[in-house]
C-alpha cells in the first residue's frame, strides 16, 4: 500500500499544478516584466497574430516541469530493471468518474474473490446482488416484461425504465446529479405502485403503436414486391414477347391492386404532360449538359475502356435510368413530333415500357429542338401547323430531296443552287424525318456522305466556297446526331483514303506533301462532330494519327505548306484543349517554324526534328528582311483561301503573310505552353523553343512585334516556373517538415541541457557532501588531538 | 526493216555456205554500226548465228593470233589463212559488240549482251586458246572482261542491263571470273581517275556486285558453264577461291571514297551478304570503324557490321558504348533505319554486366528524346525502356526513389554531356515517361502507364514493335469496331463557331 500511496501522490501532482499554473499565468500576464512583446513591423490586414506576446518565464517553467515529470523519471530509472506497474483499474482513465471507477473496482474484486471462495465455500448461500441489491428481491417486483418487447427494445432502454427496474446505487446517484431541479419541483416521491402502473400503461401504449407500424410496413413491402415484379418483367430485356405474356398472366391480378395501380399511373402521367416552364426547361437542359459533360470526362479518362473489357453486354451500368430504355438500334426518331405518336398509337400495343421510352424521347426532342437555331425552329413549327397537308408536301419534299442529292453528286458547278440548298438542307433534314419513317432513312443516312463529299468539292475549287461550307456544317451536325454510326463510318472512310494516299506518297517518293484544303476542313469538322477529348474514339483517334503523320512526314517547301502545317497545329491544340494531352509533334513543328524564320547558320543549342533539317534549301522560308514591310504589317487573320492561291500576290503581301504566320506560331506556342505547364517535364519539352527564342530573337530585333510577343512570352514563362498547385503543396510540406525538424532538434538540445544540469547538480551535491564529511572528520580529529594535548598538558602539570 | 534482216540472213547463208562468200561477212559487220536500231539488231543476231556456227565447226583459228598483215604474208596453208582471217573478223565483231553495249536502245544492248555471253559459252566448249597442259581448263577471260567492262560504264546508269546479266551470274565459274574482272576494272578505272569519286561508275559496280549470291557450302558449287569431267581439280571449284575473289573485289571497291547514298546502301547489305562470305571479315574493320565515325545515319548502319565483328571476330572497340550513346539524337526516332538500330541497341544493352550509370544514361537519353518522337516510335521505345529496367534493377531508382531530391525544378541529368558517366542520369527520374502518360494516343498513354505498376518479370517482346509504322497504327485504329460512337454535344454554329475557337482568332473564311 505504501507504493500505491506514493503513486497516488505523484499522479495528483499534475492536477494540482495545473490549477496553480493557471492562476500564476494570470498573475504573470499582468506583470509587465514577464511579458515579451514581439514587435511587428507592419500591420497586415487579415493576418492572425498569435505570437505577438510571449511569456518566456512561464513557458520555460512549463517545459521544466514537463521534463521533471518525464525525462527526470526516465533518468532516475535509467539503470533499473524493476518497473512499478499500477494495475489499479482505470486509474489513469480520465473519462471514468471516481464513482464508476470505484464500482468497477469493486465488481472486479468480487469477481476475483468469487472463484476463490467457491472452491472452499460448498454451501452456496451467498446472495447475488446487482448494484448492491439482492437479485432475488428484484425478481419479486412483478412487472411484466415481454420477451418480445425485450428483443425489440434492445439498447433503447430509457433512463426511467432502467431506473425503475434496476434502481441501484449508480442509478440513484445519477439521478441525484442530473435531476437536481426535478427533485425540487416534486419533492414528494411517487409511491412504488403508482410508478409501476404508470410504467405499465406506457409500455402498453408503445406496444400498440409498434403493432400498427409493423402492419403498415408489411403492407408496403407487399405492394413494393408486386410493383417490383412488374418492373422486373420490363427490365429483363430480351425475353420473347410470348414469354412475357405468360409471365404477366401467371400472378392473378387482384382487382383492387389493379385499380390502385391504375390510379397511380394516372396520377403519374398527368404532371409529365404538363407544359414545362422556361425555368424548368433551362434546368433540365443544364442537368442534361452536366450529365453529358460528366460522360465526356469519364471517356476522357478512359475509364470506359477498362470497364468495357470486363463488362458483359447485358450489364446495366450505373448510369442506367432503369426505365427499360435501351438503344438497340439507331432508330431514335429524335425530331419526330406528334404525328409519330399518333402512328405509334395505331401501330403498336401500348406497353408501359414503350410509354416511358416515348416520354424519354419527348424530352430529348424538346431539348434538341431548343438547341436548334431559330430559323429551323420556325420551320419546324410551321410544318407542325401544316401537319394535315403534309401528306402531299411530304412527297414533294422527298422528290426535292432526291433531286438535290443528285444535284450534289452530279452538277456541283451550279453555284447559285448552293446557298439555297444549304438553307433548304437545314429544313429538309427535319421535314424529311417526319414523313420518311417507312424507308427513306437509308437515303438520309447516305446524305451525310454526300454532304461530306460536296464539302470536299467546294473546298478544292479554285476559289473555295468556305462560306457555303460554313453553312453546311449545321446540317452535318444534325445528321450526325441522328446517325452517328453512318456518320462516323463515312468520316472514317474519308480519313482512311487520305491516310493511304499519304502513305503511298511516302513509299514512292520517300516524303509526303500536305493535303489539300478539303482534308483540313474534314479534320476541323471532325472536331465539331465528335468529342475530341475521349481517351479513345473511333473517329478522333485515327484523325490524331493522321495529323501526326502529316506533321512529321510532310516536307515544308512553300508558304502554303507553312500555313497548312500551322492549321494542323491549331487543330491539334483544339483537339487536346480539354484533355490536355501531350502532342510532341506539335512542339516539334512550332520549333521548326521558328527555325525557318531565322537567318541561316544561327541554329545552335537546339535540334530541330524530322521534317525540318538544320541545313537545307528551305531554311529561310519565313525570314522577312524588308524593313518597310515589317513596319507596315498589322496583325490580321489569315484567310484560308491562301492555301490554294498564293501566286498572284505582291512581295509585300507575301511578307505580311509570313509575319502573320509567325504571329500565329507565337500564339500557338503560348497556348501550348499554358496547356502543358502541369506536365512533369514541361521544362524539357519547351526547352528548345525557349533557347531558340531567347538566343535568336534579339538578333531579329527589327521585328518589333516579335520582341513584344517575346516579352509577353517570357513573362508567361517566368510565371510558369512557380509551378502548379501540387508543387505548392509539396513545397509547403517541405517547409513544414523543416520547421518541425528544427523544433525537434531544439527540444533534444534542451533535454540534454536539462540532463546536464541535473548531473551537475548531482555532482555538486556529492562534492558538498564529501566536503562536509571531510570537515566533520577533520573537526573530530582536531578535537581529538586537542583533547589529547590537553590531557598531556594536564599530565605535565601534574 | 525486213530488208536488213533479209540481207543479213543472205549474208550469213553465203558465208556459211561456201568459202567463196566469206567476204560478205563485212556487210554484216558494217551493219553493226548502222543508224537504225532494227538493222543493228538483225546484224547482231546474224553475227551470233554466223560466228556461233563457225565456232562449232571449228573454222576459227585456235592459239595465239598473229597480226593481220602477218597472216597473209606468212607461209601458211590457205586453210590456216582463212581461219586466221575469220578469227580476225570474229575479233572485230566482238569489239563492235562491246561498243554496242553502250548503245542508246536497251533492246540492242540486251541483244549484244546475250550474243556475247553466247560466244562465251561456245568458246568454253570450243576454246580458242590451247590449254597450257593436257586436260587443263580454259575460260575466255578476256571476253568476259570485255563484257564486264561494258556492264559498268563510267557515265551511264546500266542497272537494267546488269539485272539482265544476273541470269549468267548463277554459273559459279562465270561469277568467279566476273568477280576477278570487276576487281581488275576497279583498279584500272580508279587509278586512271586518281581517286576522284565516280558516282555513276561506283553505282554501276555496286548494282553489279551487290546481288552476287555466294554459295554457302562446297557442295553448292555445282552449276558450271564449263562442262568437263574432272572439275574437282580446277581452282574455280573451290569455295575458298571464290571467297578470296569475293573479298578482294569488295575490298578494292570499298577502298575508294563512296558517295553518301552508296555508303548507306553498302552498309545496309554489309552484315547480311558480304561479311559472311569473306575469308577474313576482320579486313572490314577499317571500313566499318571509319563509317561508324562519320556520324548520323551512316553510323547507325555501320553498327550492324561492327556488331558482327565484335561478336564473332573478337574486335575490340574502345569507347563503344560512349559512341553508341552519342548516336542517340532526336532523329533516331524518325529515320528509316529505326527498327534496325533499336534491334541492335537491344542486343548491346542486353548484357547484365553493364554498369548501372551507363544503362541509366541510355534510359534517360532515350526517354528525353522520346519527348519529340512520333507515336509509332513511342510504342516501341517504352517497352524497350521497360526491358532495360527489368535487366538492370539498379536503374529502378529512376522510377521509384524513396528519398528523392527535394527540389523538382531542375533535372540533374545533363543532356549535352557526351560521356555517359558524367551525365548524372542516376540522380534523375523519368519524368518524361510520366509526361507521356498524357500522350494523345491511347496506346502510348497506356504503355507509359505501365510504369505506375510494378514491372512484371518477363520481358516484353519488342521485335514485333520495331517495324511499326504510322500507317499500321492508323489502320489498326480505324479497323476497330466499336458499338457506339460518342458525339459532341456542344451545338455547332459554323465551321469556326465553337466557344473560344482558336481558328476564329487566326483564320478567316475567305
Automatic annotation (TrEMBL), chain A:
Classification via InterPro entries: Nop14
rRNA processing keyword on record: yes
Top-level lineage group: Eukaryota
Listed Basic and acidic residues bias regions: 240-310, 326-340
GO terms of biological process kind: maturation of SSU-rRNA
Residue ranges with Acidic residues bias: 341-377, 385-394
One annotated Gene Ontology cellular component of this protein: small-subunit processome
Region (Disordered): 1-23, 165-193, 201-220, 234-414
Keywords per UniProt: Nucleus, Ribosome biogenesis, rRNA processing
Keyword Glycosyltransferase: no
Compositional bias per record (Basic residues), positions renumbered to this chain: 1-11
Cell location: Nucleus, Nucleolus
Family according to the record: Belongs to the NOP14 family.
Function: Involved in nucleolar processing of pre-18S ribosomal RNA. Has a role in the nuclear export of 40S pre-ribosomal subunit to the cytoplasm.
Protein name stated in the entry: NOP14 nucleolar protein
Organism this protein belongs to: Nothoprocta perdicaria
UniProtKB/TrEMBL annotation, chain B:
Keywords: Membrane, Transmembrane, Transmembrane helix
Transmembrane region(s): 287-310, 341-363
Alphabetical list of Pfam families matching this protein: CBF (PF03914)
GO terms, biological process: ribosome biogenesis
Domain (CCAAT-binding factor) ranges: 299-448
Domain of life: Eukaryota
UniProt keyword Lipid biosynthesis, yes or no: no
One cellular component term from this protein's GO annotations in UniProt: Noc4p-Nop14p complex
Family: Belongs to the CBF/MAK21 family.
Stated name of the protein: Nucleolar complex associated 4 homolog
